[in-house]
From TrEMBL:
Disordered: annotated segments: 120-143
Family: Belongs to the prefoldin subunit beta family.
Self-association and partners: Heterohexamer of two PFD-alpha type and four PFD-beta type subunits.
Gene coding for it: 101744616
UniProt protein name: Prefoldin subunit 2
Keywords of the record: Chaperone
Length: 143
């Protein structure tokens, strides 16, 4: 049973680069989401501290899906505290995913023999003992 691996096993440099870029974009999105949740955690902390010093029967407003609703502090405070307690778990989960994505990127780099080079630097010369016929992919990162 011979398998035809000529098309499946060989990727062009463009496909390899596109795969790498996809992984990097996913990593950046995870980082952005972590930052967003950390800011949300800080906002929750500030609001909770502020509402703890206010009468429980006082009116307050809360945004639900773009709609501003009127509630009392007694109704909103427990919800905010609950969210505040759950946010660190979500952040930790995303940080774990970010670590896994970094490992996946490193494996991809190794697997496809990618050399990352900054645009403002010149590429180092290969050691003399390396054969000139070895194939290596070079990725130039700008900025």
């Amino acid at each position: 049973m011979a398998k035809n691996t000529s098309k499946v096993g060989k990727k062009t440099n463009e496909e390899i680069f596109a795969g790498f870029q996809t992984l990097r974009n996913e990593q950046r999105q995870l980082g952005s989401k972590i930052s967003e949740l950390q800011m949300e955690l800080n906002e929750h902390k500030i609001v909770i501290e502020t509402l703890r010093g206010v009468e429980l029967t006082r009116k307050c407003f809360r945004m639900f899906g773009g709609v501003l609703v009127e509630r009392t502090v007694a109704e909103v405070l427990p919800e905010l505290i609950s969210n505040y307690e759950q946010l660190p778990k979500a952040i930790q989960s995303l940080e774990d995913q970010l670590t896994q994505k970094g490992e996946e990127i490193n494996k991809y780099i190794e697997e496809h023999d990618i050399r990352i080079q900054r645009a403002d630097r010149t590429m180092p010369e290969p050691p003399p003992e390396q054969s000139t016929s070895t194939k290596s992919n070079v990725l130039v990162a700008s900025g």
